[in-house]
Structure formats: C-alpha cells, structure tokens
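Record 1 of the preview.
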Amino acid sequence: MNKLQEIVIEKRKQVEEDKLLVPLELLEQSIYFHRECASLKEYITRKDKSGIIAEIKKKSPALGAINAEIKVEDLAKAYEQAVVSAISVLTDAKFFGGCNADLIAARENTICPILRKDFVIDKYQIVEAKSIGADIILLIAAILTKEEIAQFTELAHKLGMEVILEVHASHELEKVYKNVDVIGVNNRNLETMQIDIATSKSMSKLIPAGFIKISESGIENPEIVLELKQYGYDGFLIGSHFMKHTDPGKACEEFIEQINKQKK
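->
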C-alpha cells in the first residue's frame, strides 16, 4: 500500500465519524454557509497579484513536522500583506497536522480566497468546506472517478465555491470535467512522494485550452516561477518552502518581491 492509498483509507473512516458528530443540517447553520465566496480565478489573474498560493502546512508525510506551532491567524494576515493571490490551508489532521479550526482562523483574518486543502472523497466534505469558510476546494484526480469529479464540481458550484482539479500524469487528464475552474499540476508523485518540476512543463502541453493552470509542489525559488510562466502557468502553490522558515510570512513577502524585481 502506498501513502496515497493509506491516506484515503483513513480519510473514509474519518468522514464517516464526522458525519455522526456533525450532521449536514448543523453544517448548513454555520455563519459562513451563506457567505459570498472570493474567486480564485479572479485573484490569480489580477495584475496587482503575484499568482502565489501560499500554504499553511504544519507537517507532511514527506517531511514530518515542519512548523507545528505556527499561529494560523498571524500567518494568514502576513500572507495577505505579502500580496498573495490565495491562501491554502491543510485541514487533514493525521498526516498534515491541520484541522478545520485552522481554516476558520485564517478566514477570520483575511479576505483572500482560501483553498481548503484536503483529500475529498465524499460530498459531505464539500458542504463542510463551505461551512468553515472555504472559497475553493481541491479535487485529486488520482483518487476520484470522472463521475465523482463532475458531481463534486457541480455541488461546489451550487454552494458558490470554485474547484481546482489536481492531476499528476497525462492519463489523469481523461478525468477533466469541463466545468472545473482551475487545473493544478502536482509536481509531487503522491504515490512515491518524489518531486520533479519537469512534470509541470510536460503536462502544460497536454492540458486542454481554456483552463487556468497552476503548478504545485517543489517551487523553491522565484526563477522556477518565472520559468513556469513561460509554460502558461498563472498560479503557483507553495507550502513547504515558506513553512520551513521561522517566519513563513516574511519568507513569502521576500519571495514575491524577488519575482517582481525579476519581472522588471
């Protein structure tokens, strides 16, 4: 069993437990449930934004603990001040050290679009994402059928959220649903945990025209961002690189400043 399969098995158990603890009816009573969502598509293509999706990630299966004691509310504010295009919040507890409360804390301290980064395998999680203040959900092609991707996308849209469909290999593009908002290419192989930026380069030519593209994982310096822009990428999801710093917000700010200098 690879790590991705292990995560999905645990996620199915967790979701069934969550359904018993917090029924859908309670999720729909959340103060965030009728809130109008911010648009990732809009923010990521704005000229005054960086295209950076900065991630709040306390640990990972590949690295272990990264920055477990970070104050989410302070980091969300710092990321916004760094002029990110969006903030990604890991809400998986067992493998990534996150929780729904982290996303709520970020929501209360920023107007930026927030991506709920998790392993979505059930419609319940989509309603849950809306109830905790998320603007965007992530769907991972490797763990979903084409039919699930379509159903989950339509539910997210009904609730006012946008959808990133994450792919890693060319065969996963067969699952692309026409109404997803963004295609994300993960440079990390979720089965082996190995990273290769060349994945984004090769996949860029295969993604159907008309989709906003973002590159995820392994983006360690501004030069990679500028290079991937030449391959048609508008957004860049960066987590571990910032989180490994004592002050992730400052690291993000300096990273974006370097991009802006090199663009001139």
